[in-house]
Amino acid sequence: MKIMPNRMDRGFYQYQTEFEQKALEVLRSGWYVLGKEVSSFEEEFAAYTGAKYCVGVGNGLDALWLAFKVLGIGQGDEVIVQANTYIASVMGITINGATPVFVEPDEYYSIDADKIEEKITDKTKAILVVHLYGQASNMEKILTLCKKYNLRLVEDCAQSHGACYQGKMTGTFGDIGCFSFYPSKNLGAFGDGGAIVTNDEQIAKDMKMYRNYGSEKRYYNKVVGANSRLDELQAGLLRVRLSHMEELTKEKEQIALTYLKELNNPYFTLPKLLAGANHVWHQFVLCSQYRDELIQYLEEKEIGTIIHYPVPPHLAEAYEYLGFKEGDFPITERYAKSVVSIPMYNGMTEEEQKIVIEALNAFVPGKFR
Description:
Strand order of the largest sheet: 1-9-8-5-4-2-3
Number of helices: 12
Oligomer: single chain
Number of domains: 2
Strand content: 5-15%
Largest sheet: 7 strands, mixed
């Protein structure tokens, strides 16, 4: 049996009738951009997160760079961000001309809050927290630092839909929470999509203006904006999935609990859980010094894996101009060489889980070369 690292079709078939009915409803409406589906989704997603406002945009990267744009952060400013994130987090900073200042991650793959303060300078204007893999970051100390140094706080929640820290949902701690609805996400669309949430009415108004060519009124443009609008069809389909988020999240939590209980092999380590935080398991990430051999072994057994992420942003060709070299962030680089995501998706069967577990528990380095 071939087991893929992710199966987005399973999520469709779980609610096929509802998705198809909603798609036809939108198609027959004759209104496809910034209509009632978008406004309804914005209201429902804001309520889900506990934020006052939600603004739908074209994708998660747009949510990030528009967030910093709206906050007025740009050339000459610095933004602190963890070094082991996906490169889109960093692009959200640099598209505006600001400079990313990298901080090593902790044992939970989140930014190490104890290492942030030493990186703060008079150019620092914001901290970007990334709730990586689906687990909420340790927000208490970060909030204290933002208050102490009068810093803006932006959250990258592309992988943390529904995750909470001390009962408060990710995306609602800072000035702006940025979400992606890429199909593989826990709350995934059937194409690109994104949103921001905020408790600041002016930020929400500015974001609506920037996403629509910088226009509040058609053909009257106040600023140079973007064309970044969550479309009606995706918004409608997201409303269907959002209505099932509690059961979808519980399903992934159950798969993760099974993995945590039954995986037992000294040649890899399991993800650690942060006290006070919950994990929605966008990815289930193992760490192994034998990572490449483990991947090859699983491939031979037709079990797919993904590396999140093999090249950290500071070593990416796109950011050569920042002047970093290998060895500058050893913890990040060690993770890049040792992490691997195993199959985790809604609709994963007990048989598939059993096959993955048995294969992983049987892995011995060198034995299967």
